[in-house]
Amino acid sequence: MTRAITAGLDGTRESLAALDWAAREAVRRGLPLRVLHAWHHAEKIAGAGRDTQREWAEEGVAEAVRQVAGRHPKLTVSVDVVEEDAVGTLGRAARDAEMLVLGSRGHGPVVGFLLGSVGRQVIAEATRPVVLVRAGDRPALEAAGREVVVGQHGDAEDSAAALRFAFETAAARGATVRAVRAWTLPPVFAYSPGSLRLLDEAGGLEPCEKQALADALRPWRERFPGVPVAEQVEMGSAGQVLLSLVGRAQLMVVGRRARRTAVGARIGSVAHGVLHHADCPVAVVPHD
């Protein structure tokens, strides 16, 4: 089954930028685009009943779709305008999509707005990649020289889904993948005699981290031999290291293993920090 790239549209500048990004990515990948708008009847709008509000919603979506279709005449586009809860609608749409693309307000006076409402719940529950796009995103940011930056951690299996997404995206764009592994000095008591021996054989901590990154990348290098790869191992927190590379990134890719707590699902500190502070599009990819 061919999965569509689904863009959530709510009429904001951020969601219109997300629609444009999704359309360009659909063209590159040869996939259809699905545009989804979820709305609800607002009782406080005087003189505008449910039918009128539905017409407004449909007209706004139709105009946005006409513009994007005009820029990409060969793109297959479908549209769904539904009177339903946004979180549930987007969550269901994400299950069947190649990826779900949403607008993001980013940092500033409204920091956390998206992640604190619809976005956080959708990202935490999604079983497919979710891409967040800023209002200032434009095709020029995908120009040659900018890389697809992906965070790698743990062993090869831990980051397989994020690496796959990064390589697929880079292959479609003719871009370089920059794979980044951040590391910190573990507490002394965490060492066991066996781990110390392995570290000695590897020549120390940093060579051991470089080997772990190389091992994780090996199957994806073999699968995508035409994709240039830059490997970077750096000491520091993963979030800080990734954010230091935003200026060279056309897309930032981070993995996500959602944790459930008493106050709901959390997406992890690295993904949370990158989503709030990166000014390039960010893809959050759930672990397989």
UniProtKB/TrEMBL annotation:
Coiled-coil ranges per UniProt: none
Pfam families per UniProt: Usp
Stated name of the protein: Universal stress protein
Lineage: superkingdom: Bacteria
Domain UspA intervals: 1-134, 155-286
Classification via SUPFAM superfamilies: Adenine nucleotide alpha hydrolases-like
Similarity comment text for this entry: Belongs to the universal stress protein A family.
